[in-house]
Amino acid sequence: MLNNWLKIAFINYKKNWLSTAINLFGLTVGLTGFMLILLHWNDEESFEKWNPKKNEIYYFQTYHKKENSYGNNLSVPMARRAKDVIPGVEDYVLFNSAGIGFKMTTKNKTAYQQDGLTASEHFFNFFPFKLVSGSYKNALKGDGVIALSTTAAKNLFGTTNVAGESVKFDNKNYVVTAVYELPKENSQIKPEFVLNPVQQIKNDENNWGNFNFGCFFMLKKGTDPSTLRQKFITDIFEYRAKLDKDSEGMTPQQYLDLYGPTDSLLTPLDQVKLHAKASWFGVPDFKTLMILFTLSVLIVVLSAINFINLKTAQASQRAKEIGVRKAIGSTKTNLIVQFLLETFVLCIASYLLSLALTELLLPSFNKFFDKEMKMNDWHVYFYSFVMVIMVTLISGLIPAMYLSNFKAIETLKGNFARSKHGIWLRNGILTLQLIISSFFIIGGLIVNQQVKHMMNKDLGYSGKQILIVNFREFNPKPWLKYERLRTEMSKIPGVDEVTYGEIIPGTNRSSSSNVDFMNQSIQAQHGSMDYNYLQFMNVKLKKGRWLDPNLASDTINTALVNEAFVKKFGWNDDEALKNEIRPGFDSIKYHIVGIVKDFNVRSLRSEIEPTVFFHYRETDWKKEYVYNIQLKIKPDDIEGTVNRIKKYWSGSVEPGYPFDYFFIDQKFAKTFERYQKQQTLFTILNAMVLMVALLGLFALSSLMIEQKLKDVAIKKTLGASDGILIMGLTKQFLWITLTAVLISIPISYYLMNEWLKDFAYRIDMPVWPFIISLLTLLILTFAVVSIKAYKATKVSLVKYLKYE
């Protein structure tokens, strides 16, 4: 029986070769997209799975109700108190300065080693990398010790058995206490060396408001992290409020509402990559991943819809076959199983083709996402095969039930072709397919428009020909280094102007604190800078004046603020210039002397933050963190000037260190890469959807028009013109298309509006994508269907009327 069913299946595949090819193509394309996105998802979810303690380690984030924002930093005394007073907390590790590098010297060589991390002494309790040499006990206890990865050990010593050896950098000797092997599995935490920032921790140990560290907590087994939230509020945040002298006259809750944080969030270690609200290790983007996955599933659904449509449209061709088989005793169950088998054979063929196509496309996909994924994850095979089974059941069962319900007497009389039975099913499924296609067209146009809007937006500054050169980490008296370089580098031919600014467009390096005015407080970014920084960046002065090097007060207690700062306090410009503010980074009040126009230094996804600009010498804390020098290059010989700067830097400023530089406009352009990739992926998926839908429409219209050839012959005999016949044959499909687009409009509007909400600077929802979607699908539908309709008008009248 099985052999007989397969023979019938292949006869029908051959007879309906066009619909068979379209089904194979559509399912292969759909399953390939599904596998690639599933590979990407599984890869993103696999981070930190290697860690045997992942179920006990949680990443700490703060929540600020007033700003409705999450932070990824914690202060030293908060972490210590959490361990001391909260029963569920077993341990903690603090970390910062990820990605640092030093020129290190051993007894045999000097080499630059990068990608280091500073972390408190219990780091290896949380991240037990495979130990190669030495011991983890007391490996990070004290400030004269260092742990190296095997790669770093080979770079510095030529071997990995170097525990007890000495390495010198930053004018200090360090003893190698451990050598470890980094995991080959995905991890965001892969430091090539680890140091304990003992002095920094000591300086901050009583500063509850210095949120300078990221923090992981290890919870005791059986502890529910959600139950610790209230403990953090009462035992940590409110406790801090009672200690702060600024809390006099306020309840702890009033203090938290004013200064924050008001709540906390603990994210499991292996979910940080995708599900953290804020992270040191990159912005999580689970929503985009879900959108891509949903779109890939929709393409598979479209392919299944094609299958259902084509199978039901072929019903008249199989009607007599079914009638005969029922007449000789075949049961309904047998027929359903047979039709499911036919579907399964096609789906398995598509599955095998998609595996080959996925392997072929994977190198390009890896390059696009900058990954090294391989087809070695059983989840991909399992879930894609489950998808094949689901497609078989969905796209096979509906036509199978439909065909198996034919009545033997009716089909043997040959009346089925003229019956309206099943037309509603084909029309309904075709409408669903066109709804999805319409959504993709509308969505693709809106995504393109939003990306174009972001790329063309006036940022409020000019970064053309501005070169940023970063200092190496941990410079002694870095402000003096900057002031010396400012004089010397301004003499290099081709350098037009020199300055320093803490806030650099296109980077995430920044700091913030509360800024108080009377009984109000806001969170504001710090903009320590040289006198000429804002003019250097072509930022516009809205009101007041710039900082003046001739006024001593401008290095003591004066500041400029941006429009967002003024707006946050609810002032007008005149009020702002009369007020004095007290920033959290200093103990004195600052007088506002100028207001600058807002300019965007972050991704355009986020709003411009309130920012206070002040000279770096105004506070001892800020001058210790001068970390770059900025140079405006003359346009006539940019490459030559950069080479001269590089030669000077590598020879006289930081010999042995890499020349760490970038142009501002190029750096900020990288903030668009994520959205440009989304745009590219959406465009590709859009093309795939339209291709699958139109091929399905062509095959379906071909089958349905073939069933009407006798009607065409009769009408043509009665004098109907080709134009009237073509419109008559295409009218039904045009009405279906119109209905589908009208249904898709509110759905698309809602979904794309939700997507746009993620952008602080977004377009107003345009009307034209909805109109273009309607016109495009109507034109394409007419073009696709009219090709077959035109051929139908050329039928041989004798062939179809000779028996009438």
UniProtKB/TrEMBL annotation:
<dbReference type="Pfam" id="PF12704">
    <property type="entry name" value="MacB_PCD"/>
</dbReference>
<feature type="domain" description="MacB-like periplasmic core">
    <location>
        <begin position="432"/>
        <end position="647"/>
    </location>
</feature>
<keyword id="KW-1003">Cell membrane</keyword>
<feature type="transmembrane region" description="Helical">
    <location>
        <begin position="378"/>
        <end position="403"/>
    </location>
</feature>
<dbReference type="GO" id="GO:0022857">
    <property type="term" value="F:transmembrane transporter activity"/>
</dbReference>
<feature type="domain" description="ABC3 transporter permease C-terminal">
    <location>
        <begin position="294"/>
        <end position="405"/>
    </location>
</feature>
<feature type="transmembrane region" description="Helical">
    <location>
        <begin position="335"/>
        <end position="358"/>
    </location>
</feature>
<keyword id="KW-0472">Membrane</keyword>
<keyword id="KW-0812">Transmembrane</keyword>
<feature type="transmembrane region" description="Helical">
    <location>
        <begin position="767"/>
        <end position="790"/>
    </location>
</feature>
<dbReference type="InterPro" id="IPR050250">
    <property type="entry name" value="Macrolide_Exporter_MacB"/>
</dbReference>
<feature type="transmembrane region" description="Helical">
    <location>
        <begin position="424"/>
        <end position="447"/>
    </location>
</feature>
<feature type="transmembrane region" description="Helical">
    <location>
        <begin position="21"/>
        <end position="41"/>
    </location>
</feature>
<feature type="transmembrane region" description="Helical">
    <location>
        <begin position="289"/>
        <end position="310"/>
    </location>
</feature>
<keyword id="KW-1133">Transmembrane helix</keyword>
<feature type="transmembrane region" description="Helical">
    <location>
        <begin position="733"/>
        <end position="752"/>
    </location>
</feature>
<feature type="domain" description="ABC3 transporter permease C-terminal">
    <location>
        <begin position="685"/>
        <end position="796"/>
    </location>
</feature>
<feature type="transmembrane region" description="Helical">
    <location>
        <begin position="681"/>
        <end position="705"/>
    </location>
</feature>
<protein>
    <submittedName>
        <fullName>Putative ABC transport system permease protein</fullName>
    </submittedName>
</protein>
<dbReference type="InterPro" id="IPR003838">
    <property type="entry name" value="ABC3_permease_C"/>
</dbReference>
<dbReference type="InterPro" id="IPR025857">
    <property type="entry name" value="MacB_PCD"/>
</dbReference>
<feature type="domain" description="MacB-like periplasmic core">
    <location>
        <begin position="20"/>
        <end position="231"/>
    </location>
</feature>
<dbReference type="Pfam" id="PF02687">
    <property type="entry name" value="FtsX"/>
</dbReference>
<dbReference type="GO" id="GO:0005886">
    <property type="term" value="C:plasma membrane"/>
</dbReference>
